[in-house]
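Slides due. Your pick:
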Amino acid sequence: MIEFHLDARSGVSPYLQLVRQVRQALRLGLLREGDQLPTVKDVVARLAINPNTVLKAYRELEHEGLIAARPGVGTFVTRTLSDASLAAHGHLRHELRRWLSRARQAGLDDESIEALFMTTFRAAAEEDIA
């Protein structure tokens, strides 16, 4: 089962962070069709957020056809976003972990690592377009 976390410094609304975490878990194959999401009550207790925030996230995911609520039973994944090629690229994940380790050894904190990655990612994407 997925365990949600929130980053108050991200600038992304809590409900959208939850939506993105579910999508990412679906994309990476960490959540599969039939898996149950945590109850709204459990998410509220764990993250100390408003129940309406969790409900909004779940409604959006349901609208996208990714999950379905079964009254009295729970909320379940109805379809996945996993890309078989992502699972096949374990070596890339290993290389990325090594890079992250080197970045931390160089004294970068999480925000700095994320900033470095995102600026490099965007620059590479712009080069690919040009």
Summary: The longest strand covers residues 67-70. The chain has a mean pLDDT of 90. The two ends are 42 Å apart (CA to CA).
